[in-house]
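SEQUENCE, STRUCTURE TOKENS:
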Amino acid sequence: MYRILLVEDDKSIVANLTEFLRREGFLVENADGQKGALAKMEAQAYDLVLLDVSLRDGNGFGICTAIKSSWPTPVIFLTASGDEYSVVTGLDLGADDYIAKPFRPRELVSRMKSVLRRCSGTPQPLLEYHDISIDTSKAFVTKQGNELFLSALEYRLLLYFFTNKGVVLTREKLLSEIWDIAGEFVNDNTLTVYIKRIREKIEEDPSHPTIIKTVRGIGYKLG
């Protein structure tokens, strides 16, 4: 049974669509904005996200980018009819499909099943470096086989290092790529604090790091 996250702040749409999808055999959970959606993604693995573009808390574009940077979960955008800009922007950000409102529920289910079939055959990568492993399908991090408990921001930052192994990442790049897409303001000093926290969890000797290394005057790199 597929688990679906519906990110929508229109209560009538949530109620009607949730009831219909459950009758179709899906498990459905709801978030009404950006913070709630990312919190649920951190806590639970989902097979598919249905994502409205326009939300009172944040917007669908920021959520989609955050999801695609941290999880392999497919995303279908729910867009206003005829909103070509939203469609193009969503697809450019990595969305797997879109459907315009108002939509026929059975057409939506057909699109959902098509995306799930297409994505289910994709191997889920396991990223490894030294004794640290990241299972991106579950957002699960281990050190020597033991689970590490990271916050959502710590996880996204660590994942960004692992997907850019050997690349020197400036502080400006980390701030723009990691924090801005989450819709959260994080200044340079806060970035330093998060790097310190991650090192305390993954390094044998955080005061002499061998995994996330400092490149003086520039930023950091993995390896």
Summary: The helical segments are 11-23, 34-43, 60-70, 84-92, 105-120, 152-162, 171-179, 188-202. The first helix runs from residue 11 to 23. The first strand starts at residue 3 and ends at 7. The mean pLDDT is 86.
